[in-house]
Amino acid sequence: MSAWILFIVRLYYLRKHGKPHNLGRTAWIYWPTQIAMSLAAIVILVQAIILYRNNSPPVATLGCLIMGVAWITAVLLNHDEHIYEIRSSTLIFAFYVASIGSTVTILHTHFDLPPTDRVIPIELNVLFSSILFLGLIFEAWPRGSTRVQQSSGAPEYDKANIFSRLIFYHYQNIISIGLRRTLTPQDTANILPRELRTDCGYKEFSTRWNQRLARQKRHKIGAHSLFWTIIRTQFLDLIPIVICRIAIIALSYLLPLLLSQMLSYLQDYEDKPLSYGFTLACGMFLISLSVALLYTYNRYQMFLLSVSTKAALIAMIYRKALKLSPGSRMKSTTGEITNHMAVDAEQWGDAMLYLSLWVSIPIEIGVALCLLYKFLGWSMIAGFLGLLAFLPIQTWQAKLFEGSQGDKLNAMDQRIRLTTEVLAGMRVVRLYGWSAAFLKRILSIRQTELNALRRIGIVQTFMSVSFISSSLIISLITFGVYSLWGGPHFTPGKLTPQTVFVSMTLFSMLKGPVASLSEATTSTIGVLVGTKRIQEFLLREEVSEDGVVRFKKTPRDPNDSVIFIKDATFSWTDSSEDILGDHSGEQDRLLAEHDNSYNDTSSATLQSINLSILGGKLTAVVGRVGQGKSSLLSAIIGEMYKIQGKVQVSGKVAYVPQQAWIVNATLRDNILFGNDYDEDRYRYTLYACGLEPDIAMLPAGDMTEIGERGINLSGGQKQRVSLARAAYDNADIYLLDDPLSAVDAHVDRHLWDNLIGPSGLLRDKARVLVTHGIHHLKDVDQIVVLKEGSIVEQGHYGELMKNKQTFYQLIKEYSVSHANERKKRKNSTGPLLEIRDEGIETNHSSASTLEAPETNNQDALSFEELTTSEDGTENEETSGDSGDNSQVDHKDEKKDNKAELIAAENMKIGNVDLKTSHIYFRAMSYKNVFLILALFIAAQACLVGSSLWLKYWIKRSEEADKDPENPPPSVKAFLGVYALLTFIYVVLYLVIPWLVFAVARIRASEILFRNLITKILHLPMSFFDTTPLGRILNRFSSDFSAVDEKIPNKFFDMIYFGVSVASTFMLVTYTTPNFIYVMPFLIAGYWVIQNAILRISTPLVRIYSVSKSPLYQHFSESLNGVSTIRAMAVQERFIVENTVRMDYLANNFLASMSCKRWVEVQLRLLSTFVLLFASLFAVLGRSRLDPSLVGLTLSFAMSITEEITSLVRIYCDFQTQLVAVERVVEYTDMKTEAPDHTDVCLPLKWPAQGRIQFKNYSTRYREGLDLVLRNISIEILPGESVGIVGRTGAGKSSLTLALFRVVEAANSYWAKATDNTGRTLFESTVTSIDNEESLFGQESGGSIEVDGIDISTIGLEDLRKSLAIIPQDPTLFAGSIRDNLDPFNELEDIDLWEALERSHLKTYIQSLPGGLLYEVSQNGENFSVGQRSLICLARALLRKTKVLIMDEATAAVDVETDELIQRTIRQEFKDRTVLTIAHRIKTVMDSDKILVLEKGRVSEFDSPSRLLKNKDSLFYKLAEQAGEI
Description:
- By secondary structure, the chain is of the alpha/beta class.
- Among the domains are: 2-153, no CATH class; 194-509 and 516-539 and 914-1228, Up-down Bundle (ABC transporter transmembrane region fold), CATH 1.20.1560.
- It has a 6-stranded mixed sheet with strand order 6-9-10-4-11-12, sandwiched between helices. A 6-stranded mixed sheet has the order 18-21-22-15-23-24. The chain has a 4-stranded mixed sheet with strand order 1-5-2-3, covered by helices on one side.
- α10 crosses α14 (274-321) and α21 packs antiparallel against α23.
- The longest helix is centred in the last third of the chain and has 50 residues, at 1131-1180.
- It is elongated, with a radius of gyration of 39 Å.
- The model is unreliable at 577-602, 821-899 and 1320-1338 (pLDDT under 50).
- One of its GO terms (molecular function) is ATP hydrolysis activity.
């Protein structure tokens, strides 16, 4: 009846929700199964007629009739299954098996009946059985070779029938490949079932989550619970899992009943035949086999649910990260969001397995107690009360564990956040010599994390007493009560082998669910804590979609504004009460409809903004640093809180941020940015952005891979790539945040003429240009002047000059200082240079057009000479104009071994070597390891000893019963010894977990982490240039999560089960010596399986670990460029990319899990033979074996299946988890930079003079690349001011890196000693040979001396802390302003305020809440780029050194602030040596000398006046292009 109902339900589901695959059907399977089921229906209906005619019981007739109807329904179902599914029907398959089982039983019964008593002819039953067997064969036949399955493209799991899934036959192909060779990602592709893919899970989860939020918001009831939302979403899938779990419990507890019958048979075997004993042995074997298969299948199904849940959560986290409001982004750093993905979502990796235990554990305990009552009577109540006594302790422990787990995760968040920032800003950390300071801070946070982990270890110690020792304690209480009062009328109970050893088996089985409480509790708490953290993140405020009214198309009327802002006030912080706090916890948005009612502008960044921008017009936004220029663009794209007013944007927006955002992809992909490739448009864009010469130099042209954060591009190149991306996007509105600040003067001119300006590529687009330069302002259509967050003026250049207000003052101040400088140079250069009377604007020639770029010969020449990228390679000579198509036509053909900057992550082959295990055990301390092993053996000896003592007691009692003269043994002695053994066992299990989790684990984690972070902070910069940040963070997050938690847990379980299995084998062999003949074969089988799993699972774990890095990297890149992603409305494309990477990760995770389940099936099948042979040998030796000893042996043997399976699985898990240690060691084995300190004794206050000498110095970024500096030989005198100029890629910044030894002299000792590429000296030398230079000439990279000391001989920290720098990228770190100025905490506050005053920031910092303690957000996002530059100036002022390097430090500040900085430098560093690298030629015009670099060589080195006298000099040309002469 149930089968028929299920068939009807399945038919309804298929026809209602199914989707036909339209692939046809496999005739040779379809028709035989249809015929078989039809014949089965006919035969069973004939049987029903026969039974009816012979007046058989109505139940029998009705049963046959219902079965016949069921088979008819199965025919209909089979028809639909072949239409909608490509695999065998699970219901039909199960019905076949059930029908065959019942038919065989009936057939056996009929054979035992006399022929006269048989109602149905036996031939009919045989025919029915034969039909069913044939039908099952066709139904179960593998269909992988059929056209239907091959055409479907479905994963193997979706093709497999239920039998294949039970024994994991569908995974056999991958196993076979893995045994022949090392598995690769291609071998395991397409394993993930379609319904588990990220999109499916996300849609289901997000829909239910949003419905729950909407319902609770509407009714204002209840609190949000992401956890229960997940459970409700997976509820229907959990039902069959729970039912299967209950079936496993029912079958498992049949074993003790059969054991009872077996012991009864052994005690009285004369009355029963030998076949009875064999039947009991085979029954125990079959039940154990069924449990094994069902358990593995059930476990796999739970992993499938966990994979789906984890993927959906990561998808929700990623999508949420793209929608965070400004306030939420300040609360959730990149590191914290990455942790939600890498740690919190990861908690669901095996969560379903442990969550299902809360259903099965009470049932298991209940069944065990009922069976105990059958054997021990009311005495079991004492044991039950003892079990209840543990519950309050467990509750208390769970609370402690949850609190400690939360503390650990919070500390880990802080650690990952700080580590992320330090790694992202590693170049700046090196330049400042701050590695030691950040190392100390990271280790301090790590210590807090380890303290929480130690507390967790102590809690685990007490939990282990509750869970591991509880069964022995309960058995002591129960047997004690039974032996004293368990008999009739509270007389002493009689302990028999049947009573004791069946009870012992039940106690052993009871240990499983009780011990599982520990895992279930810790896992559930981990899931709850992690899910709560994700929930808090998902409830964070989102950016308002209504704050800016957007229209997809531009207005038809050209007089209508494309950007319209009226009476608008904006803020970076939400002044209102945080509606996302604990009060409501709702996922509210920034609601624009409430804007006009909220007038608190006290924290407003922009106030009373009124702005109108027409299509095709160019608007310049000017103002001093920190006045709100960049904020205005952010407000337009909706990145700020709109407090009041109206913002309307019509048309597609392209956004170029002030700090270029580059993704790790090819140069072409960075420009296309997901758009289709249009060759003409692409070439136009490259030329307009001045990228053609740069592309010509790249190893693979525009197909060259660009490193993470554009690491292998100069600042100017990154900015031009960002511009090219926006230009190619063909948007209607272009928001350009100071894109010209990072480029040289001639590049500035080219970009203006060909891209941004009135005749540029974007001339028909609306452009809003934030700029600090004033030389283009006369050519713009509108100028907007910002001051203190308000628009104080706007209009045309002429109008604003006539008004003589703020803008006029700005221009006048600049012009006066500019004119004075020119007069000085005019006096020194004589009549060669003519100064125009009006010093306000720069005289630029008319812009050339894209159609005729050669009209301006000077520009054409300069762009042909644009020279090099930062690696110093020369530009290829090209004929014709700079727009020649040949430069782009054959880019795909240009290939080079340097084209791929980011190499694929290294993945070792084979098993984890012994070296890795040795490293981990050494970190734990071998003393601890051996002590733990010894204590485990002692504890197991106590456990076996207590069982042997019970056996001894039973034997003595039986002897006393048989011989009245033999006095019965003392109950007190029995209980005393039993209690002593139990007490020792409990004490040992207090000590062992404490040693493992609170001592050895902490020691290993501390040592491995300290080694890794110390090594990472001292690796050469080339490592960070070629290694994605996500790949490094993977070590600090996912891998150390394994080191902290998974590996110690596996280590503990491995020894626990190892000692237990060893003692069981010894006991079985001792009891039944014949078992020793079988044992070698079993051990060989286990050895083969263990080797197979290591051979297969280790590469799969490596593949899984490596596949995490792309996901982390994409996460990090997306979060860093979220403003650009949102402004350009490409969220969907990035979501698709995240989904692809998540599916790839889930596929590899499932491949690893499937491998483990396949092995688990083999192990369980093999382990059941241990029970089979032990019981068969017991039956065969029934006449000479002691039933007590047999009972003891079988009770242990019945647990052997689980223990051996767990041992081999856990051992292999331990080995595969050691991959995390292997990956950590991979980095700790790398070569580091030179040491921080050497034996060279530096003079006090070195350098005292500031003399710098470059002696024939050459360098490259890493071995295998060309030289970036070639034979530099110059001397800079003490106190001299030197300006360093040159075109993009000439080597200006490389000179700075050389001075700080971020790069080493070519072919020097340290260049070779820090090389991690594995290249030989010959290879690294030959690849760098220039056509003009010999091998001999390249042997020495020269040297740099500061005050006569070769800097290669001194420690890096000594060197870097003795120099001061204002770097090109002003980098701030999360923490206080004080931390950013003085990370070593060496200076007084008065010193810091003085430095801030001199850097013109004191007033602003004083206005901030907390002053010096004001918290800087991640990457300094709550400060403008200009303000960050000023903080870097303050850092330099705090260093009382004789040498200062300014690496394009004023590129991001306005001209007025630039003047203030230059004035400060002239005053504060007048007696110091100053090296200034600048794009603005005027910045270095008053320097004592000018160093002109060209292609990595010194082109000119002289005073500005002398260089300007020579019109053929490169400096003269640069100054002329910049309008300085």
